[in-house]
Fold these 2 entries.
Entry 1:
Amino acid sequence: MAAMPGARRPLAKSRMTIALPRTLVDKIWDAHYVADTASGAALIAIDRVFLHERTGASALKSMATAGRPVRDPARVFAVMDHIVDTRPGRGDTTTMQGGSAFITETRSAAHDAGITLFDVTDRDQGITHVISPELGIVLPGLTLVAPDSHTCTQGALGALAWGIGSSEAEHAMATGVLRMARPKTMRVTFDGRLSPGVTAKDMALALIAQYGSGGGAGHVVEFTGSAVRALRIEARMTLCNMATEFAAMTGIIAPDEETYSWLAGRRYAPEIFEGPYWASLITDEGATFDREIMIDASTLAPMVTWGTSPEQAIPIDGTVPQGPARAHDYIGLDAGARIEGTPIDAAFIGSCTNSRLSDLRRAAALLRGKHISPAIRTALVVPGSSSVKRAAEAEGLDKVFIAAGFQWRESGCSLCFYAGGEGFTPGSRTISSTNRNFEGRQGPGIRTHIASPETVAASALAGAIADPRKIAG
Amino acid sequence: MTPFTTLTSIAVPLLRDNVDTDTIIPSREMRSTGRTGLADGLFAPWRYIDAEARTPDPDFTLNQPAAIGAAILLGGANFGCGSSREHAVWALREYGIRCIVAESFAPIFRANCIRNGLLPIELGGDAIRAMQWHDVNVDLAAGQLRDGTVIHTFTIEPEPREMLLEGLDAIDLTLKQLPAIDTWTQTDRIARPWVYLDRPEKIA
């Protein structure tokens, strides 16, 4: 049982100091500051490194070649999620040409380095950013890096967690630190109550649509406000997941009682979060940010992308605005077209954005007792982790999806991106609960519309982009 | 890492915003766990009419006769957004690109450039548009980019500047400060014991 640290008592006058109020990010930074470098950057301690088979073998092999051991293997984890097959009965073979080598080489490199690997058939296998919180590997106040841009997802637990390249991953594993300049900070406050049918995914898309894909450039974004506080932990992960689509270094949400209750006792987490340290992991009143954005959550509607960048997102009852000609050409929608009712060929529920149990429950609630449109050629549900899959099956969600016409898969990143091999029918227009609608992201010529799992489910039923608020669940 | 001092090259324009790393090197073009063999897949979706058959698209900027041997690429805003794959930078380097001049960069891509001797320069859109297809000279030590008679100054933080100029290996540099890291870690083990997972009570 989690216990919240005691209420903060007012400081006695004699103990008052003139310490300036600090942001949560400042506090985590200061707690991890090791030393300056000769050229004025800082060495920042890294508490956790997470690898996957897409980039993990590459980093570990490069270190082995250079004769550099992993400094503290107990704090480095790896999982098979990116290339691994998601069809039932999977093993090391994948439909991607040459894909097996990523799996087998990651396995042997992980073994040689002595790090913890969640292998293809492990009970705990799943998408990095789903299993790291599930297992309590990420914790409030920690620094965690992974060679994966969506590492920002894990900021939802109050950690400073961000994506890096392979060379930086090697650096963190070999030295225990990264060389960094102090990041700028931004506070995004969502106040007000979300309307029914509007989710964390829609909050993220609305922010990026309003301020642009480069809007958070290089900042650490702290999400706060009453609408953020009201989000459950899984929804907070969805919100933070999209910080990289905002060009932010990462997103973070200050931990609260819900965070600590959710994490307590998980395998790598403390049994109990007690004491002043955990209570200190908040932004002090009066702390200043380099930038502030305020959004009224009560005005938001379900969002869907119309183009080839996450910033090209509109409310589902909106019309396509004039954007870059290239985006209109690729996606095949002209300015002025209504997005609702656009026919689709495929539907995908999954990815580190929206593949957790609550996401699957909400989609299943709309699909229960119904069948997707005959116009849909491919419909997939890919649970975010093997443990999410088991939990969903225990509730019978798999049967709901299968009866509705969806395929029910093993966990992995799957068709969030196209690695070769398995793909959507060429030329497909997909509605997808993922994070990127780039040209070709889900396969050559595939046109992707990003939305919440609810909107994906509603659209799959209609065979066209549909407003989930109009479907009786 | 190859040091970056000065460079003169034709500046090839790719003046689009939000050029993403999935386009720079698609996942399906990352065919091994190594860092080489990637140049052929660089910009595959745009560079080829048929990526499988490797049929070049004559309209794509890098396929112009003037672009042969180019080492400077011009971009728009938020260049290198998307996936953290360092393969995007390895592919650019292997192809011969040593410098990208863009309105802004996605943060992970920018850090990857610096770790691989590829200089990212941020300039305004007007200056970038004015230099397309010109022979441009870059002098990192001086922080200057010369486009004919026009001289632009650019800034880059001291640490990346030094790493690029000297061609330094970041890990080697940091390992010189290992005593400080060890001291810090010993103190931190007491302050934050839950961080350290090799504690006896954690081993089942």
Entry 2:
Amino acid sequence: MSRVQIVMFASAVTLLLAVLNLVRRRRLREEYSWLWLLASLVFLSLTISSVVYGWVVWLIGASNAALAFAFLGLYFLTLICIQFSVQLSQLVTKSKNLAQEIAILDGEIRDLQKAADVAMPSAGGELQKPVRAAADGVRAAAGNGREPGSNGWEPAKSSLSGRVQPARDQALSDVKLSNNPVTELPLPGLMPPSSSGHQASGYEDHAERSID
Amino acid sequence: MSGQRHNSMEAFWWPKETLLPRVLVVMPAYNEVDSIGHVITSVQQLLPGVDVLVVNDGSRDATAHVATEAGAILVSHPYNMGYGVACQTGFKYACRHSYDYVVQMDSDGQHEPRSVLPLLAAVMEPDVDIALGSRWMGLAEYKGPLLRKFGKFFFGFLAGILTHQKVTDPTTGFQALTREVVHFYSSNVYPVDYPDADVIIMLKRAGFRMREVPAIMYLNTTGKSMHAGLLKPIYYGMKMMLSIAMTLLRDDRKLRPVQPPELVNLGYDRGGMA
């Protein structure tokens, strides 16, 4: 065994063990490890067996062994890079789709909150307060309580709630402006159909369109 | 007020199961605080009863606030993702809420709101699936820079050959779509970085019928074009060539979706027309 072969053997074994250990510790997922495992196994077989080694060098037509190893190494690296690019493209598409859905759902939630505030002006938003506090708590907990003073239970001034706040204030001030008896309706679901006057159909329409 | 979304009293009196088509105007917006309010109000004045959706693409100014104040529906991206993604978010919203027609227009005031009417009229005809607003058809108000003219000529020529149809404005972002095209745009086949000539070819190959309609567009006065700089036009040209070549190698007829694929339909669909 030549010295270069010994070095190659040691490197291939180290690589193989490192990849296996990463998979064992769940730092590397199985589906992304197979190309690395294949590469290290090929190198291992090249350094162990002189038959395989001679055959590969002959197949490539390399004048010496170093060239064959360099070629194979580069080729594997290219393959792995392409695999990464494919995965990256999929991830970009997925994260884009996720962000789009979040945006749409966020808009719908805001519309629903506004509709709820308009439907129950007499409550002045009081009825939604516990729900909102809970939602804020969940948001704070989701943010791992990074905001100072947040223990995950009290509503925290998270970035998200900060963004929603103006919309709520707007909705509440809308309600104050429209503080006349006709608009003070109970919950639409609890209302007998006959009591939905024409004057109120605008609000009702809004509430329904948001869900529709 | 809640009623801001509907500008006329007629909008209130429409029955819920109306036979009138529901139209959504999708406006992608990125830091358009100066122009967007005016654009929204003019669209609402011209087309009362039409919903305006502003897709706020991570703006750092008060675009979102101005849009809601003007009575538009607002959808806000959590971070900036680009023009094409913003358009697609609007299309997905339209799918989810079962709109019959969608108009895509810019929020920076480049697209004249009055031109929405001929676009909608064209797309509502039975033999048209998509109406493209062309700034170079008849109404010559638009005089762009030289490079853009060349790009327009080259890709228009290419798209014309490949679709067997005259395409005078391959880079238009002013279009009206039927529900089917909106579903197609909502799928992952839609190229979200530069949806231009390649989309036109893709649509044609997927079997959609398009028509070009004259539309008034103004020069971008603020100067923040998507294709500004030295390297971006080169990249754009290269990417577009690659995209067109790849489009020709695919069979998009198979890709034409029946249902919007990405969003779970939570019972928003009125059924029937899909």
